[in-house]
User: Fold this.
Amino acid sequence: MKLSKKISALILSVALLIGSFGQANAAKRLHAAIADWTGGIITCEVAVAILEREMGYKIKQTVFPSGTGLWEAIAAGELDFACESWPSYAEADTVMLNEDLIYEGKVVGTYSGDGSVDLLGTAGIIGMSDYWIPRYAAEELGIKTWKDLNKHKAKFATIESGERGRLIGCPVPGWNCHDQKRLDLLGIDFQADELGTEAAAIAEAKAAYMRKEPFLLYLWSPHWFFGAYDMVGVQLPDHKVCDSFTEANNWKDCGTAAWPATGWAKDYTMNYGNPATFASAEHADAKKFFEKMSLQNIDQAKMLVEVDQNGRDVKEVVNEWLDNNPDKWKSWLP
Amino acid sequence: MATRTDLIDKSNQSKNIITYVIIGVVFLVALWLSTQSEGPSKFPKEVTDKFTFTAWVNDGEDYLKKNYRWVTKIIASYIKETYYFLEDFLLESPWILIAAIIVIPCIIAGGLRLGIYSSFVVYFWGATGMWEPSLQTVALMGLSVLLCVFFGFILGVLCSQSNRFENFMKPVLDTMQVMPAFVYLFPALFFFGIGGAPAILATMIYAMPPIIRLTNTGIRQVPAQTIESATSFGSSKLQLLFKIKIPLSLPSIMMGINQVIMMALALVVLACFIGAEGIGGQVWQAIRRLDVGWAMEGGLCILFMAIMFDRFSLAFSKDKERLPSDVQRFYLLPQSWEKYQIAKILETPLSFGNKILKIICQTVTSAIATVFKVFVSIFNKSTGENIGEFISKRYYVIPYFLVLFLIAFIDNYFLEIGTFPKEWKLSIRQPISNAVESLTVNPGFISFAKGLRAFVYLNLLRPLDVFLTQIPWWYTLAVFSALGYVTVGIRFAIITAVLLLFIGACGIWTQSMITLSSVLVSVVLCFVIGVPLGIIASYNERFRNIQNVVLDAMQTLPYFCYLIPVLMFFGGGTVSAVIATVIYSIPPIIRLTSLGLTQVSGTYSEVSRSFGGTLIQTLNKIKFPLAIPSLVIGFNQTVIMAFAMQIVTPLIGGKGLGLEVFNGLARSDTGRGLAAGVGIVLLAIIIDRITLAWTKKQREALGLIS
Assistant:
């Protein structure tokens, strides 16, 4: 057997040598975290495509679930940057960022953490979260705002919720949506169910929509779901914050006037990266690009439909958008 | 003899009555206690506040991160380099070369049948557009299996040489297998970085136990006579080990490798959560887009891959010298089909091709052998002859490398082969998705699903949830310890009490009771569905064969794949969690029921039949009692699998300890996740030990063990 082992080693090394010739060019390299939800993937792929096409980068991409783990991985330098973080849902941003978030010249957020993660700038996407019901249910039952929900709670009830209605709530506890608290404070007699993953929540909503059953769903926009199904928001009260309002004192102070009795804030989403990487002269261009990058909701929404509805490949869709809309992104180049 | 059985019967009867009375009293007291309490039972606050296990773990983790991360980084960088090397090789080489590397060994080891199957598998990877992820999974799995076998073999040999080391390793191995992988997947990330390295290390934790166990038992089972005769010829301890014991235990070790491969494949899919590429990532992405068909394609890629590696490693472990392709007649279809004309038409050209292939291989090899022989003989005649003989014997291996070399050569100098051709695409996504969607809106099916959901929730889950969480903790603890005492002994009773106290002190008592309740409900459902299926299978062979295939598929398909259909039919929540658990953990109970019933030898049932027993009577009075040990083993495995599934159910709305693990991970709070993970492990271990001890007693009572 020894002989055949040697022969196999020889062949392997020959094949490897040939393989390695192909990649022997020195490009600037970055390691990107690709989100695990389509909106985030598109934003990231847009950034990656521009860096690779226009700025001579070679980007290694790793799909990584969003959450505190991702922030820690970036602080540790395992990954260089990540895209489209939603401030309402991130827990780590207040601890790790130390910069102002600027959108079109206005300061929309201030952070004073330890600076272990670098705020690269806004991604451009402005996110909105709300509770939604399908249009057929809204019209049939005459529900206009959240105030009308109680009257029809029996229609929204399931086996588990009993007499109360059911909200397919914010799926992940780590996102800090405080759904049940909000429902209780607003006096909506519904039970919020955390289903664990976005996929679970959407799967149930999709099935209910296909069967034309009424359901109340928490969701953020832009999201492909709105492209496929006709949903209307229940118009939760506008977002308000109250300073002495924390989870620790159980939101006793401000009553129903402020978060979480209100809806979500507008989410000016942001890109973030490893401070050491983006401080280096080699990547100064990339840093400038991220400062200027601003993808609009409408553009992302169009690509979302292409990818999730028509089942096309993300990279193909992104490249097509870049080819057809150079005016939208040429100005982001440093 | 007759009087003795009578006596035993009587004592058994009175014993049974006492047991039932005790169980009834215990249950009634529990019921009374649970109605007394308001809300779930809680551990005393003073204890949970002082016992800050989570904080200790987190401090420990921080300390390790600060001071020893450089060590882990070095280890990780070696693994990473090797992994990238392998991955690059697999992805950058022309696809025919990779296909040949995989397919030809399958032909050599398993004959043309396995060869054809493996080329179908390779085609399926490419055709569904999963060429790259499949090869990434192969690379991850291959490397982890290699490392597992290397370290597992060493540890197994050590275990076999020292009883003390074996006793130390046993609980460690148990924990490695039951501990939910999610618990160490994420900490592994922070020590070993992103991607391949932590995935491979986590896989090693999960998949190493079988090879350690089987190496150990294999060496220990070498017959004493053999050892004695070897010692009498004056071999030293080391000689004995390496010349006698290890070679004799090779079949057992090969069996271990086979199991390692299967387990590694199961975990590599999960590794997508820490940034490792591969099919797991594809399936997960498909699920996020609710594309059932895509998820299923990914699942099938894994399933086919698993079957291929399983058959390959089994074929290899059978016999090293006799290659099946030499001796066996080739059958593509089951042998019982030989009477059909179609089978003949299909098989004749194939077996003819097989023969021609063999002749070509032999000719080429003997030609090469002659060249070598003549060439070497110029220098040294006997070496030349030896080499010639050596080569001509391996008339499958030599052409293999020749083919590989040829492909690499053509690719480099003549035409570039590149990656898998896109024109050969095959997609089964749409039909699967359509089928699921039409079921989702089918009123009959949905009302059935809703009815089932209501039944399970209202009659099983909710009452049990309320009951278990509301019984005071000290009562539950006492009941479990008593059970431990009765079945195993006083030592285990104390251990049970300590373990349960630990769970309580971590402040996760309520969650663990919820987990226990959903496991119990799932197991009951498994029993109700599984035992009848097993009975049918034991009577009808065709049904059994079909069922076995389905069960194999259920066990190897990544469980992500069926989560989405379950959600669409049943809606998210605890009921869906239970249903997913049932799907995952039902195979052992079906299998072992049918196994137990078929093993009961025909004479017993014939005797019973000749005395005029009806089918039901025979089943009830003869077959079942004799099949009980096998049934209990199935039950035991089902329980363990149901516990393992608890870590996944939070993805679709499950509650309890699994959700705690996820919450810990989402907040990067390792302590919290670990406490909950340990909770699952402890519950599983307690129940496992109790049922195992009970099985042993049953076997003894039946006289199966002296």
Q: What stands out?
A: Residues 112 and 327 of chain B are 12 Å apart (CA to CA).
